[in-house]
Design brief:
Elements: H1 2-10, H2 19-25, H3 31-42, H4 72-87, H5 91-110, H6 118-134
């Protein structure tokens, strides 16, 4: 992980890694994992050889910006995890973690807004999480 982050910081292409390991690293429910995924998403060409599916429809079936809260980045990472684990035939084994990562990302998104509106954002984040879990 440290080598990967250092490579991103200095602009070098990271050493070859196992696709499964990268997928796991980029889909953990942590801020560091989100940042690593976001950096890779910006420089997708560096990861082209791995054949990742970066497509997203943002917040499937829901508003991308409910009440003005921008949930798109969290939904995009969630789509990334679902699409790539589904393609690997391993979605069922990782779905719970991917959904927890979505909730963590949405919660961090809410933390960027003014204190007075965070409870509304938090309720919306939990609603999105519960909808994903029910689907």
């Amino acid at each position: 992980m440290i080598k990967f982050i250092l490579a991103l910081l200095i602009g070098a292409t990271p050493a070859p890694a196992d696709k499964t390991a990268l997928l796991s690293e980029w889909t953990q429910p942590t801020a560091a994992s989100f940042r690593a995924w976001a950096a890779a998403r910006v420089d997708r060409s560096a990861w082209q050889a791995y054949g990742f599916d970066w497509t997203s429809d943002d917040c499937t079936g829901g508003l991308d910006r409910p009440a003005g809260f921008d949930f798109r980045p969290a939904c995009r990472r969630h789509d990334f995890g679902y699409r790539n684990y589904r393609a690997a035939g391993a979605l069922a084994a990782h779905k719970d973690r991917l959904d927890r990562a979505l909730l963590a990302d949405l919660s961090r998104t809410c933390g960027r807004y003014r204190l007075v509106v965070r409870p509304v954002c938090g309720v919306l984040a939990l609603t999105y999480y519960m909808a994903v879990r029910a689907a």
